[in-house]
Amino acid sequence: MPSSRRGSGTVTLPTGQLLAVHTRTQDEEDLPHATKKTMADHLRKYESLFTLTPQRMRMIVEAFKETLELGLEKPEQVVPMIPTYVFGWPTGKETGDFLAVDLGGTNLRVCLVTLQGEGKFEMTQTKYRLTEEQKQEDGQKLFDFCAECLKTFVTTNLEDGTLKEGDTLPLGFTFSYPCFQEKIDHGQLIRWTKGFGAPNTEGRDVAAMFRESLRKHNVPVELTALINDTTGTLIASSYVNPRTKIAVIFGTGCNAAYMEQVKDIPKIKQLGIDPDAEMAINCEWGAFDSFEHEHLPRTKYDIIIDEQSNKPGEQAFEKLISGRYLGEILRLVICELIDDGVLFLGQETYKIEIAYALDTAFLSLMESDPTEELLMIIGIFTHFFALETTLAERQFFRALAKLVGRRAARLSACGIAAIVSKMNYLEEGCAVGADGSLYNKYPGFADRVHEGLQDVFGDKGRNIVTYHAEDGSGVGSAIIAAMTKVRKDAGLYLNV
Ligand code: BGC
């Protein structure tokens, strides 16, 4: 006799849709379901696959730290440790109007930021959703789209008097993909990440490509800085919380930035910058352990995701952590159990067999389902996949979601720990500005990162505290544009 699938209620989906959920008791007799015991046995297997012991974490941290150091020493390393030409921390006195364009993993955002000094600012913004097609069509077309959106934004703000006719506003372009920078307003795309694949862009200077689109569309702006979202987050967070030493993004992709001493970046020695100056480093740590796969505990599901991605071998760390992949990891486990005849016997499973059909947002809903009957999980499976579940199965899915989410948070803690350890921040402690959908919306993600930091460092791990960061791609980019203007007006390092 299968366990009960009875239950009814409403569920709010990530789309905001309200879903009524009813399960029919007569179905219980019709479909064969796995027993509670079978599900518990399977869970034990996945527990050992997805659990990271403190000892294993410490080994990862050591390898990570060495990789970070290598990236600073030599050019063209797997983790590229990109010098950003953002010199030191903001003073908090930066003022003025700045435009910001943010091409992230999911949206395009255009903002007008007014920095008022004393850590204060105002912002107006418009968001546009990027389609899957736009991510794959010609790169110049993508930048044309960004320019058109910016043009509309500027025109609207001119019409309502927010902007003045004849102004050429400085523009910070937040482009959150790995770019090798020779100077602050230049960036050669090393590789697309997060599922983007727009041709004719890799290897090219994306700032120059965007400038070309701005010129074509006659947009009255001057691109003054090309910025990674993590660098923007680092600067914006420090503007409001000066204890911030590191910024991390856990969203569709993952990455970190921190402030380094120029003397500890041997690969830019030839530029003749004061060795005691400080410069933000965009780590691009999502690439950690790419190609060689020596350090990270990849399961066969991670390997499938990697092999079937548009960039096999690349972004190995990101593929275990970021929001783009977590739902897919869970889906692959479920599909394996379908193939093995454990789950959903006698039901049509084609909907859940579609790659990336299970969004990471579902994973977080599954984990946070407050109802005893796990109504949210009933809702997700019936509404999106037309599948009936038993309570035992739903409990299994929730436990599995926890394992995948927890592993991601603990690996994230390893990355933070590597920077903390490299920079000797442990004793004194520091704040870590964090942003991204996973960090902001996944229940318990931050707590698990903190728990992970304590597993690596013991009690002292408590000295490292993450907090929800300021908007790096908008505010951060404006502050960086302002800092750059001050630097250049002072005639400092004009060549970068
Ligand atoms: C990109 C980084 C970015 C991160 C978070 C990664 O895929 O390579 O540049 O900072 O996603 O958006």
What this model shows, in words?
There is one protein chain. The protein has 16 helices and 15 strands. The longest helix has 33 residues, at 391-423. A hairpin with a 5-residue loop joins strand 1 (8-12) and strand 2. The radius of gyration is 24 Å and the shape is globular. Helix 10 (323-339) packs antiparallel against helix 13 (391-423). By secondary structure, it is of the alpha/beta class. The model is unreliable at 1-7 (pLDDT under 50). The N and C termini lie far apart (72 Å). The strands form four sheets. It has a six-stranded mixed sheet, sandwiched between helices. The chain binds beta-D-glucopyranose.
Give a concise summary:
This protein is α/β, with parallel strands linked by helices. It has helices at residues 27-30, 36-50, 54-73, 132-136, 139-159, 206-216, 229-240, 300-308, 316-321, 323-339, 360-368, 375-385, 391-423, 437-441, 445-457, 472-489, and strands spanning 8-12, 18-22, 82-87, 95-103, 107-117, 120-129, 169-175, 179-180, 188-189, 221-227, 244-250, 254-261, 278-282, 430-435, 464-468.
List keywords for this structure.
5-stranded mixed sheet; 19% strand; alpha/beta; 16 helices; disordered N terminus; 15 strands; 496 residues
